Amino acid sequence: MSAKHVLIIDDEPDICELIEITLMRMGFQTNSAYSIEDAYTLLKKNDFDLCLTDMHLPDGNGIELVEYIQKNHPTLPVAVITAHGNMESAVRALKAGAFDFVSKPVDIHMLRTLVSTATKSAAVTLDRKTVTTITGQSSIVRQLTYHIEKLARSQAPVFIHGESGSGKERVARMIHEQSNRSDAAFVPVNCGAIPTELMESEFFGHIKGSFTGASNDKQGLFQTAEGGTLFLDEIAELPMHMQVKLLRAIQEKAIRPVGSSHEISVDVRILSASHKDLATQVKEGLFREDLYYRINVIDLSVPSLRARAEDIPLLAEQILQNLANKSGLTSIPTLDKEALSALKSYSFPGNIRELENILERALAMAENNRITLHDLHLKPRQRQMPEEHTSSIDLAGQEKNAIIQALEETRWNKTAAAKRLGLSLRQLRYRLEKMGLE
Is the overall model pTM greater than 0.85, yes or no? Predict the structure, then answer.
């Protein structure tokens, strides 16, 4: 098997040489460039497995190079080297599509970790079976699935927002499972469920005797997630003092256990989520702006169930199959037409979680494994009779946004956009004409 090939771009020969020596000892083949122009030339002549670039170059900056590689070599991971403490540049690079960043002066251990993570065989990642999936065939679900696949190739922090019960943890788990971190742990934590006085110990661990009751050393969540993904659900619930400590841990890629006098480097990807509007929380002084800026490098929205009502029959069928397996039933329960119609017009304030609860309760009441409208016990005020038109408008708006986004990402190439959305070219043209976008 041939050695992996890494392109190094920095106008300081000493830094190039340091990185070259480090990577050669790891068994990598390297090429160095001292300008963006030199880098373009090498990229045209060679196939690389990773690109490492400085932010400030004589004929431009690293962001330009990241954007060029995203456009012309979309499968090539690129990491940027930033000035120490310059998180603004690092965040800009991640938003532009950089895989990750490393700060000057270059920490050899962090560099080795970054390079190892970035150059893991893409074939292994593609062949790996994803355990977690999203049920649905709507254009909204197809678009969400596409974004998940794209985000899985990056190390950038992702903020996942959506209503309670919409499947934010499922989305986070999918990003992890499709990434080259999938062999390591996925550690989900509900920030609102940890007592305030135990938070620091839970996140960063503690050493024996550091406080009353600390009878043994304990690893925190960051160390448990080493090499993998830490999912911080309901991050808006973190108190201010923990927001400060979390920000430092993310920026420095290091933690200090309670009672310890030294820091421990950690290699963890951060995914976070909340059903609250964090931007509003920042304005109201309830959430730190600098932490929001750091975790919200990439924003991913999970649609509500009512925004993809067309997926309800498939979801219901899957949930009933699971309930049948759990209960040891020999046949899968079914919904009659009236019951299914009622579910499709229901507002679902609790989203998929509520659908699961409704069907589990209904199955207990049903006769002969056949669920009727009466078995569902839906509250009339939560049925979308007068609001059905509004719901359809919301759904149409979601579909329109997904189509526009796909067109913009493919530079209005309709054939490519249709493929991305899972539609035929004729179906896409029909929708464009219907929406007045033709």
Answer: no
